[in-house]
Design brief:
Blueprint lengths: L1 H9 L23 E3 L2 E5 L4 E12 L2 E12 L22 E14 L2 E11 L4 E5 L3 E4 L2 E4 L2 E5 L4 E5 L7 E3 L8
Antiparallel strand pairs: 1-3, 2-3, 3-4, 4-5, 5-6, 6-7, 6-8, 7-10, 8-9, 9-12, 10-11
Length: 178
Amino acid sequence: MKKLLLSLLATLLFSSAALAAPPLPGGDSDLPVDVTADSMEYSADNSTVVFRGKVEAVRGEFRMWSEILTLILKKQDDAKEKPEKRSGDLAKANDIDRIIAEKNVRFKNDTQHGTAQKATFYSARNILVLEGDPVLQDGENSIRGNVIRYFMDENRSVVEGSPKKRVHAVFSNEKKGK
């Protein structure tokens, strides 16, 4: 199970890249990110970029789907250059405060996949939080709970249950059939 959580969640690392190629998993930071959605809205006043409607983000072998994908940019100080005055890209990845995927979130990378109603990545703390019936699977191994938190810098995860949603893990014998 440790392999499941560590490898699946490690693929969810948001590496540095320009907003033109939003941070997403997939290993090599030079790989392009291809985001498809019904609409996109950038708001300098709210410091957000929101993709809506059948959102699909692809980077290398990693794929993620949701109904809404929101990039929340760090607020700019009055002394700093405003985002709307920048030339070229909208923002740099180090300007991203957090990324939120919402509604029917699914992701897949090789044999690993997962679902949740909400996935939030906090860039400053390098933490990924999965909420809303989160399930992580690798082959026949799986884990589910109320909330799954992955602390990337510590290579540690915490799966929380609740009175109505206890933690449930399934470990399969990988050697069967051999």
